[in-house]
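Hi support team,

I've been running sequence recovery on a batch of backbones for a student project. Most finish fine, but this one hangs at about 90% for roughly twenty minutes before it completes. I'm not sure whether the input is malformed or the queue is just slow. I've pasted the structure tokens below so you can try to reproduce it. Let me know if you need the job ID as well.

Thanks,
M.K.
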């Protein structure tokens, strides 16, 4: 057309029709989004909740934004209706109609007014000192998109936290209640057992956590890095996860106490048996020590400790706990006693081994001496005077009391060497083919 107005070149009829069609579709989409926001479960929960902290501040601003959104939408609707009315006056719009339509569709003549209460906390009019603003339709849509995105983000975020955390906290609280009842049945109570104190602490923490989540859900939201989509992020479950792990640890402790209650008698019988064996082994070691001191000369024999009276006293305490169903006290005591009892039995066995070592050495020397005597007999040399002399000397030392093991061992070695020399033929250093080998054996020293 070549005609310009305050808002630039005047639109022709086709441009106006295309703009009205686009704006109509845009109007329908905006209305659908606003109605969905209005009916959003999160928004209804926010309206009825007693909010605190960050959520209260954000919701105050968001409520004002939603109010302003509808004011913007009403202004947008009025402008679109006016444009449609002008276009519908006649089939072929006049120049004045087109100028007016151009101003409506492209100009900044759309006024949005609001009360001080409605706009006090809105992120657009707040602090400007104005109760109205002028927009073009394009700017109005852009502003509505901004307000809608921030409002939806707040509503979706609060709803996501409320959908995730309170239900999980309630389930954990129900599990906590069952665990507390079970703990009470086995004597795990606050002030008497650490697990009982943990249950009280977890109860207090979950109660406080639920109250805070309900009143300030935004305090439990972790935004996604680099995400600008409404509701981008996840609920912060750090405190919940920590308490869930703590409750699981308490459950394992309660299970251990229950196990003690079920097999306490069998474990006590086994402990009595182990300590009895340790006591008998120590008694045997003490008796053996007296025998060693009497029969073995020049030998250092270690002292043997007395019976494990301290463990016996603890075992009596454990039996008392069982009689009075004090399972929470019996559990750690049995675990400690089982380890100590095994150590005590091992120590008693080691003591017996150490005390009887000289007797074992003597027995080994006696066995070696008899083995060589049998070997000599197989070779028909049992009556050899020299070997009989060496054998009798070693035997007197090994079968006399007290026995000097060092001297006895030397006597056995001398007998062994004499047997070896007698059974090994001597070969001359120099001999020819016609020389005869002397088979008489070694020369004997008397």
């Amino acid at each position: 057309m070549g005609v310009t107005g305050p808002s630039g070149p005047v639109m022709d009829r086709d441009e106006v029709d295309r703009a009205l069609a686009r704006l109509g579709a845009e109007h329908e989409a905006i209305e659908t989004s606003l109605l969905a926001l209005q009916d959003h479960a999160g928004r209804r929960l926010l309206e009825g909740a007693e909010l605190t902290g960050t959520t209260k501040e954000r919701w105050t601003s968001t409520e004002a934004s939603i109010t302003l959104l509808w004011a913007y939408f009403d202004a947008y609707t009025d402008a679109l209706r006016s444009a449609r009315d002008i276009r519908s006056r006649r089939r072929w719009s006049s120049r004045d109609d087109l100028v007016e339509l151009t101003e409506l569709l492209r100009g900044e003549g759309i006024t949005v007014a609001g009360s001080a209460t409605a706009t006090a906390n809105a992120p657009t009019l707040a602090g400007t000192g104005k109760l109205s603003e002028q927009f073009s339709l394009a700017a109005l849509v852009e502003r509505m998109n901004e307000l809608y995105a921030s409002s939806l983000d707040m509503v979706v975020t609060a709803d996501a936290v409320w959908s995730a955390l309170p239900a999980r906290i309630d389930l954990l609280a129900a599990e906590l209640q069952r665990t507390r009842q079970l703990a009470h049945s086995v004597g795990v109570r606050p002030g008497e057992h650490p697990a009982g104190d943990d249950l009280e602490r977890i109860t207090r923490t979950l109660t406080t956590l639920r109250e805070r989540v309900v009143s300030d859900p935004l305090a439990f939201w972790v935004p996604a890095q680099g995400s600008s989509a409404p509701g981008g992020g996840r609920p912060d479950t750090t405190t919940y996860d920590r308490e869930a792990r703590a409750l699981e640890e308490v459950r394992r402790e309660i299970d251990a106490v229950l196990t003690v209650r079920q097999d306490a008698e069998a474990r006590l019988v086994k402990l009595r048996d182990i300590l009895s064996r340790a006591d008998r082994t120590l008694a045997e070691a003490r008796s053996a020590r007296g025998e060693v001191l009497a029969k073995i000369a020049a030998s250092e024999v270690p002292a043997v400790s007395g019976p494990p009276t301290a463990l016996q006293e603890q075992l009596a305490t454990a039996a008392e706990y069982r009689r009075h169903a004090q399972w929470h006290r019996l559990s750690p005591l049995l675990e400690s006693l089982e380890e100590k009892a095994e150590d005590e039995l091992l120590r008693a066995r080691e003591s017996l081994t150490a005390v009887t070592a000289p007797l074992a050495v003597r027995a080994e020397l006696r066995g070696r001496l008899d083995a060589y005597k049998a070997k000599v007999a197989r070779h028909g040399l049992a009556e050899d005077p020299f070997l009989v002399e060496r054998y009798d000397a070693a035997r007197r030392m090994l079968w006399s009391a007290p026995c000097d093991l060092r001297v006895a061992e030397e006597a056995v070695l001398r007998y062994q060497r004499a047997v070896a020399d007698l059974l090994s033929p001597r070969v001359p250093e120099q001999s020819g083919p016609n020389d005869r080998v002397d088979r008489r054996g070694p020369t004997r020293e008397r």
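--
Follow-up from support: It reproduced on our side and the slowdown came from queue contention, not your input. The chain is about 70% helix and 5% strand. No action needed from you.
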